[in-house]
Amino acid sequence: MKRRPTIALIALAAVLAGVSFWFYSKRTQPAVVAAVVPAAVPVVSATVAGKDVPIYLRGIGTVIAYNTDVVRSQIQGQLIQIVFTEGQKVKAGDLLAQIDPRPYQAQIEQFTANRDRDQAQLVNAEANLSRYNQLGDKGYATPQLIETQTAQVAQLRAAVKADQAQIDQANVQLSYTRLTSAIPGITGVRQIDVGNIIHPTDPNGLVVVTQIEPISLLFTLPQTDLPAIQEHLAKGPLKVIAYSQDNKVKLDEGKLLLVNNEIAGTTGTIQLKAEFANPDHRLWPGQLVNARLLLELRKDALTVAGSAVQQGPSGAYVYVVTSDQTAVLSPVHVAQISDGQALIDQGLKAGDVVVVDGQYRLKEGSRVRELHGKAASEADLQSSVQNAIP
Q1: Topology given in CATH for the domain delimited by 75-99+177-205
Q2: What is the distance between the alpha carbons of residues 390 and 384, in angstroms, rounded to a whole number?
């Protein structure tokens, strides 16, 4: 009867020993860890292509009128008529205003009467001189009488010339009663109203006329660009393109007229002047514009989207997608970025595939998954939104 509990205890101990051995063997057995493969990074890519690329130098400039004329009076008088409207387009010689001409017409009549009087006296004196000469030949007139009459004729001839000069001067004064435009252009704000007395000393004159066809543009570039400008200018005229301040609207195309004869020492810049035909009046005096000086058209240049270019401690670089869908960092040299396109002259070749969006998740050797079509558009939109969030 006592042997049964003993056997049960022995069996229980054996079971516990087996369970302990099983747990111990599980804990000491090395664990098998599965290798985790990083997921491919979705990116938007583009192929490097060769095309003709214009090389520009960019500066900020101010539009100035080709000519500016402050219409002033050269005489004093009352304005009796104004025949222009503010902002009107006028031609050279067009009448703008009329000063009362009557005082100057009266002067002309007076000087004309003086001339006619002196002319009549001259005719009489010349007739007397002719008679005295005839009498002198016969001995009936003294030489003194003839000389006196000759002097009188000369005096009257001079008086007639003086009278004619006064008439000519009065005619000039009379012409000044017509205020005309000396240049073609656009009239500004009228400074004097009808009925007022206008003076030559009036500081603002009657009106300002500005010529805007053609029109000029003054802009500046760094002095380091001067050698390139001179080199290309020696080959022929250079084109200048004017854009709006946001660089979205092309205003007009013109040509470079002048490279100033000195460099501004305080700013280290050189001033240039361009001329534009401006038929649509999109350029206006005083307007601030962005100027692009076209140096050359580079043939078959390599371009990528400007967003593909990143900046690192060693300079600019891009991620190139290899044939096995791996991103490789490639240093590049950017000649210029214009209209969202980067001109690459070192570091890439035609046909290379580069990442243009999604670089922030990449590093050297990352696996990539190129997005196309709608997926690429959505990725671009998402990237734009993320970049816009401060």
Answers
A1: OB fold (Dihydrolipoamide Acetyltransferase, E2P) (2.40.50)
A2: 12
At 263, which amino acid appears?
I
Helix axes of 143-175 and 102-137: crossing angle, nearest 10 degrees: 160
- Identify the three-state secondary structure at position 289: strand
Looking at domain 101-176, its CATH class is mainly alpha
What is the percent of the chain with per-residue pLDDT over 90, rounded to a whole number?
52
Q: What's the distance, Cα to Cα, between the start and end of the chain in Å?
A: 87
CATH superfamily to which 56-66+213-298 belongs: Efflux pump adaptor protein, beta barrel domain (2.40.30.170)
Q: Is residue 182 over pLDDT 60?
A: yes
Give 127-162 pLDDT, tens digit per residue: 988 887 888 888 777 888 888 889 999 999 999 999
Complete edge-to-edge strand list for the sheet that includes strand 178-180:
178-180, 95-99, 77-82, 197-198
What does the pLDDT look like over 97-119, one tens digit per residue? 999 999 999 999 999 999 999 99
The band of 54, judged by pLDDT with boundaries at 50, 70 and 90, is confident
Helix then strand then coil, in percent of the chain rounded to 5, is: 35, 40, 30
Separation CA 40–CA 291 (nearest Å): 44
The C-alpha atoms of residue 55 and residue 335 are separated, in whole angstroms, by 9
DSSP character for 36? P
Question: Which pTM does this prediction carry?
Answer: 0.68
Domain with CATH 1.10.287 in the chain: 101-176
Evaluate if residue 78 carries a pLDDT over 60. yes
Alpha helices in 98-213 (DSSP H): 102-137, 143-175
C-alpha closest to that of 308 among 348, 354, 347: 354
DSSP 294-343: EEEEEEEEEEEEGGG-EEETTEEEEEEE-TTSBEEEEE-EEEEEETTEEE
CA distance 317 to 332: 5
Measured distance CA(98)–CA(71) in Å, rounded: 12
